Amino acid sequence: MTVSTITAPATPVTRSHCLALDRDDPLASKRAEFELPDGIIYLDGNSLGCLPKGVAERVGAAVREQWGADLITSWNKHDWFTLPGRIGDRIGTLIGAPAGTVVTADTISVNLFKLVAAALRLRPGRRIILSDTGNFPTDLYIAEGVLGMTGQHELKLVAPEAVASAIDESVALVMLTEVDYATGRRHDMRDITRRAHEAGALVLWDLAHSAGAIPVDLEAAGADLAVGCTYKYLNGGPGAPAFLYVRRDLQEALASPLSGWWGHAEPFAFTTRYRPAAGITRQQCGTQPMLSMIALDAALDAYDRVDMGALYAKAQRLAGIFIGEIEWRCGGFGLTLAGPRDLDRRGSQVSFHCPEGYAVMQALIAHGVVGDFRAPDKIRFGLTPLYTRFVDVFDAAVILEKVMAGRLWERPEFRLRSAVT
Amino acid sequence: MTVSTITAPATPVTRSHCLALDRDDPLASKRAEFELPDGIIYLDGNSLGCLPKGVAERVGAAVREQWGADLITSWNKHDWFTLPGRIGDRIGTLIGAPAGTVVTADTISVNLFKLVAAALRLRPGRRIILSDTGNFPTDLYIAEGVLGMTGQHELKLVAPEAVASAIDESVALVMLTEVDYATGRRHDMRDITRRAHEAGALVLWDLAHSAGAIPVDLEAAGADLAVGCTYKYLNGGPGAPAFLYVRRDLQEALASPLSGWWGHAEPFAFTTRYRPAAGITRQQCGTQPMLSMIALDAALDAYDRVDMGALYAKAQRLAGIFIGEIEWRCGGFGLTLAGPRDLDRRGSQVSFHCPEGYAVMQALIAHGVVGDFRAPDKIRFGLTPLYTRFVDVFDAAVILEKVMAGRLWERPEFRLRSAVT
Q: Is residue B114 flagged as an active site residue?
């Protein structure tokens, strides 16, 4: 592929400065814990996290030794039965959730259904689920599904910045994604939770782009409910089971409509009537996919002894350099930053509004930088500090400049849309 | 362990006869396609199927080459996006379901919730979900969960033999498990479906103990809805994703309350309103656990070119010998057959009411025969003809006789209950 020759402009930082930052990075050694793809700069760990070393071996052993050799006895012998709760506790340490308040199960969508439906029952007489237009679409779709069954509620959507002022005593549940999947904008969890509680509403936080990315303290914020994803920053593998959180003092009052046998007080008594288990266990429903669950458990080793504050500090520094370079190099091509400029109000990803963004991202991928496109016009980059270096974001910005300056995205093959991007 | 010396009685069959049956078995070669545990007779494939050869390699390659190397591009490059539907079509060939009517996703419990809630909307004004006391408990629990949300319906339970006569015009949905998990008793799918349709009701079949075990022809029976399990007879691995079936002409009318983005007509348009996809795809909800999904896809190779009629014929012959031997050898110890004696009215498993059944099963496992116990009093054995030999069921009966005759189950260690059996 022919790339236009460009003269390097004076830029906010230099490549050698980035190399120096990498040398001084206290998290630099974590990169060696991942199997990273050859020859590309992967900035899509907010969509599918990279493969931690050790996972392949653990999964292989689980297939051969647990499933293959020990078969049904593995439910006890290898503690499959307790794994969803044990993984939940591990994730809990990353999001400020005490032991016994998180369980790993199902998908975010399914877990949202459980919690939204259950939360509405705790606020009889209140009609409104309040969310914002920046929420991830499936969260809104699931709320629609709940409303369709209750026939008594309404989903109210406001702009993200209008959420706090829209909370009043008609609101049963405030349902938000903390970090906007498209822009990286971050809600103020403490402030919104406090305002919701003052109005007597419950709050449910979707941590899909928070868990493993930014410091979260559910307990300190007083959050009622949360869900989250394990295949993005937590590197659990494609479609790894999601998690959910219920504040301890709400657990016994919260009745999941997905009242399956794994949430029963005595699943192996095989009684005909449902009786929910104590604690977070009642939020389980059916038998979980153990191979994917075991991969997730192995993957979480990469987060052992990681300080989330230090991780986020690196993410912000990566973002600062990346934003600066892109604006310097590509601002003239119509790229503008999505979301706030204040790094404290952002998660760990960066998006730009970009004319012809779909084709630009395809061209960028073809030139070795993997991000993704989010309709209608954003090119999106996940900065995952466990394995992303400062020099990576610098080089990515240089390559994006080449793509823009050379109009490399104009080739027809970059404009054909595939099913998933 | 000391085993009482017993004189072999004259029995219905001989071991050498069983060895001869194995030599003549047209399915005998399938056994070589499985990694079977050493030194035990595994009669619990109706709880967790054995590991097919080739699965470990396929899963290992998926971890390293798809997740590890190709990362996010695997959704297109390795067709992850279409895998739930493609596996659904493969399962469809085993249960008489045309292409495009089955999808693999979530758990049986979650899929039941989708279909029960959606079915009730198709029969407004009818209050009753009819099921039987032999249904698997989670099916009943999930129905309870749906009822708790609609506030307008009632779950009516009758004895299995009373189902047909209990169908009347108050019934919105008949919800049954075709083969009783505890006794092996099999409902007459065609007859009950016909009666339900005559009364204007819909029918949902749980095929957990049918798929891969007995011939099922959903289309010929006119079944409306079905769910099923892939980790039992289909050997998909622990907690492998479940499947669901919707008759083609019902698909566009059926609105899942679990309206997640994977069921959206344009999931990557990221619109704020839900618009269901066409066909069976709308029954998907969230991102599926791909490692477990890929294991299932590989495992299904063992069913390629298997004639379900021939498989069931072997299952019945295995059951005939096993029942005959156990009754002959152990009838004097109080064991009595659960479920019907007519093999055409049974699935592919055999249970016996057994005094001290829990301890008996623990002792039996300790002596190398793995079945399971189902409360309150049944010892249960899955006869999975792809890898179970005639000599296996003969030997298992001989060992059970030793356990009963020697009262080997009386040891204290066999009476301690663990969490899962």
A: no
Looking at chain A, which residue has its C-alpha nearest residue B113? A258
How would residue A393 be classed by pLDDT, with cut points 50, 70 and 90?
very high
Per the CB < 8 Å rule, is B75 touching A293?
no
| Ranges of chain B with pLDDT below 70 | 1-11, 418-421
* Token pair in block for residue A184: 């990286």
* B231 counts as catalytic: yes
CA–CA min distance A9, chain B (Å): 32
| A8 Cα to chain B: minimum distance (Å) | 31
Flag the least confident range among A29-38, A208-217, B4-13.
B4-13
How much is the average pLDDT of A179-188? Answer: 97
Q: Please tell me which residue in B34, B42, B113, B136 is annotated as part of the active site.
A: B136
Alpha carbon distance, N-terminus to C-terminus of chain B? 23
Task: Please provide the average confidence, as pLDDT, over all residues in chain A.
Answer: 95
HEC secondary structure over chain A = CCCCCCCCCCCCCCHHHHHHHHHHCCCHHHHHHEECCCCCEECCCCCCCCEECCHHHHHHHHHHHHHHHHHHHHHHHCCCCCHHHHHHHHHHHHHCCCCCCEEECCCHHHHHHHHHHHHHHCCCCCCEEEEECCCCHHHHHHHHHHHHHHCCCEEEEECHHHHHHHCCCCEEEEEEECECCCCCEECCHHHHHHHHHHCCCEEEEECCCCCCCCCCCHHHHCCCEEEECCCCCCCCCCCCCCEEEECHHHCCCCCCCCCCHHHECCHHHCCCCCCECCHHHHHCCCCCCHHHHHHHHHHHHHHCCCCHHHHHHHHHHHHHHHHHHHHHHHHHHCCEECCCCCHHHECCEEEEECCCHHHHHHHHHHCCEECEEECCCEEEEECCCCCCCHHHHHHHHHHHHHHHHCCHHHCHHHCCCCCCC
Q: Distance (Å, rounded) from C-alpha B266 to C-alpha A397?
A: 31
Tell me what pLDDT residue A3 has: 40
> What is the bridge-based pairing of β-strands B378-382 and B349-353?
antiparallel
Instruction: Quote the CA–CA distance of A411 and B252 in Å, as a whole number.
Output: 39
pLDDT for the residue numbered B10 = 56
CB distance A290 to B236 below 8 Å: no
- Indicate the length of chain B as a whole number: 421
Q: Is B417 a catalytic residue?
A: no
Both structure tokens of A375: 């309709």
Contact B172, B179 (CB under 8 A): no
* Mean pLDDT (whole number) for A229-257: 98
* Alpha carbons A363 and A403: distance in angstroms, whole number: 7
Cβ contact (<8 Å) for A145 and B256?
yes
Which chain B residues are within 8 Å of A145, Cβ to Cβ?
A: 256-260, 274
Complex ipTM, two decimals? 0.95
Residues B370-389 have pLDDT tens digits of: 999 998 999 999 999 999 99
Do B286 and A137 lie within an 8 Å CB cutoff? no
User: Considering chain A, what percentage of its residues have pLDDT values greater than 70?
Assistant: 96
End-to-end CA gap in chain A: 22
B42 to A71: CB separation less than 8 angstroms, yes or no: yes
Taking contacts as CB-CB distances below 8 angstroms, the residues of chain B near A255 are 148
Give the separation between CA A295 and CA A276, rounded to whole angstroms.
28
Residue whose token pair is 């209608």:
A376
pLDDT, residue A332, reads 94
**Model pLDDT, residue B6:** 39
